[in-house]
Design brief:
Fumarylacetoacetate hydrolase, domain 2; alpha+beta; single chain; 33% strand
């Protein structure tokens, strides 16, 4: 596989189409010109899937009076359904997307859901920003520190979070989420909050309960495909709690880049379309303040990432 040198001297892999030889489809022919050239100066994520037919914001939502969730794209302030209703993980596995042309709703009239209701796997990365390592007094990891959140941790980015009664020190972590596509490639990106029970995390060596509780991964508001994000390692990331800015950083400050995370996880785990990788949080988490500022009932967390939009959720 061909390798190129990207900014910050990180090696990044160019995406391959993967698999055995097959007949070219109509979609392949339309997309071919956009796939011919890879510009390392734009520093896209490694092994990304090029959805060259169109860059889209994939969403799952309900409308007032509707029961069944719909899939579609967000475009121009509207949520537009796909004529063929398929789960988003199937859409991103297809490698080729076309503009939605079904029913159209004003974005204010729909309720956005978690783009993928229950991702097969949600990988988290601990201590992946130098300033967060410093504020926690931790040592710099030699390799990515990987943990798992449960599929039931996934929840709407703009929903309500119910904190288990056993948790007394709930904390926020604004993060860039990578959405896996076909062949372990990057299909797109979303915004996530890696909610964490600091009291459980401190006293339990495994983080399953601390980070994998029901609803502890609000993410969204949609999945922005890679075509819309020239460089995922140059995105402003900010988090507010009740309107107070708590985190103000950039994905440029990641310790391990996206391609490195994918390669490390793939050494033992097969990545599938729809899997999520939460790439770590910068400094400014609640436990690092003096005194600590943990989340309380009624608090509102807002996270914005450049080019991806924002999510905002309330603690019940």
């Amino acid at each position: 596989m061909r390798r190129r040198r990207a900014p910050r001297d990180r090696r990044r892999r160019h995406a391959s189409s993967g698999g055995a030889h097959r007949e070219a489809t109509d979609c392949d022919r339309r997309c071919a010109p956009a796939r011919e050239h890879f510009d390392a100066r734009r520093a896209p994520a490694a092994n990304q899937t090029k959805y060259a037919c169109v860059g889209v914001r994939l969403a799952r939502f309900t409308v007032e009076g509707g029961v069944r969730p719909l899939t579609g794209e967000v475009r121009g302030g509207r949520a537009i359904t796909f004529e063929e209703q398929r789960p988003i993980e199937e859409l991103i596995a297809s490698r080729c997307l076309h503009p939605a042309n079904g029913r159209s709703f004003d974005l204010a009239e729909v309720r956005l859901l978690a783009p993928i209701q229950a991702p097969r796997a949600i990988f988290g990365i601990g201590l992946n920003y130098e300033d967060h390592i410093a504020e926690t007094g931790s040592s710099r990891p030699a390799e990515p520190l990987v943990f798992l959140k449960l599929p039931s941790s996934a929840s709407p980015g703009n929903g309500e979070i119910r904190c288990p009664a056993v948790v007394k020190r709930l904390d926020y972590e604004g993060e860039l989420a990578v959405v896996i596509g076909a062949g372990g490639s990057v299909a797109g990106y979303a915004i996530a909050d890696d909610l964490t029970a600091r009291d459980l995390q401190k006293r339990e060596s495994q983080w399953t309960r601390a980070k994998g509780a029901d609803g502890f991964c609000p993410y969204g508001p949609w999945i922005t495909t890679v075509d819309e994000v020239p460089n995922p390692h140059q995105l402003a990331l900010r988090t507010w709690v009740n309107g107070q800015l708590r985190q103000n950083s950039s994905t440029a400050n990641m310790l391990f880049a996206i391609d490195e995370l994918i390669e490390f996880i793939s050494q033992t785990c097969t990545l599938a379309p729809g899997d999520l990788i939460l790439t770590g949080t910068p400094s400014g988490v609640g436990m690092a303040y003096d005194p600590p500022r943990f989340l309380q009932s009624g608090d509102v967390v807002r996270i914005e990432i450049e080019r991806l939009g924002s999510i905002e959720h309330r603690i019940a």
